[in-house]
Specification:
168 residues, alpha+beta, DNA polymerase, domain 1, three-stranded antiparallel sheet, 3 strands
């Protein structure tokens, strides 16, 4: 839980690097919400008065933290991870062809959900969070094809060689 706190700094007009370094250190280690500064031209001690509003984390942490990375090999079962890996390859190819980062096409979290649910068509794909009309129109069929291909290879791998031969 974060609380809002304030810090005040005084930087003399003829400052030394110490005051500036102290301010920069504070700014670099806190989540700053707003700053207000005013130059006070007092003849005896002109300088900058700086008020900083920042979020103070009650857990003791003041830095903004990023989401931890998830290793989907540990989260997904082996069959689902194989689907996830195939989807990741498709995403990588699409991103490379368009010259964009892979996460723009689909996040790892969305990809894991897609691997878990294995939608069979574009309508089912639209029920997954993050797959709107534009993304489905642009990439949907490639991902459905990838899922179908993965499901066929899983089904083939589970059958005996004689069953595979009779299908040919």
């Amino acid at each position: 839980m974060s609380n809002i706190s304030f810090a005040f700094f005084w930087i003399p007009a003829r400052f030394s690097e110490v005051e500036v370094e102290e301010l920069n250190c504070f700014l670099g280690s806190h989540r700053v919400l707003m700053t207000d500064r005013k130059f006070l031209p007092d003849p005896s001690a002109p300088g900058w008065s700086i008020c900083i509003e920042y979020a103070y984390e009650s857990s003791g942490k003041t830095n903004v933290s990023r989401k931890q990375k998830i290793d989907y090999r540990n989260v997904l079962d082996s069959k689902t991870f194989a689907v996830y890996a195939a989807l990741r390859n498709t995403r990588k190819e699409l991103a490379h062809a368009e010259g964009i980062p892979a996460y723009v096409i689909m996040t790892n979290e969305q990809m894991a959900e897609l691997a878990r649910l294995c939608p069979e068509n574009l309508v089912e794909l639209s029920t997954i969070d993050g797959f709107g009309e534009g993304r489905i129109k642009k990439y949907g069929q490639q991902f459905i094809d990838c899922l179908h291909s993965e499901n066929q290879s899983k089904n083939s791998a589970g059958k005996s060689p004689t069953e595979n031969e009779t299908k040919k």
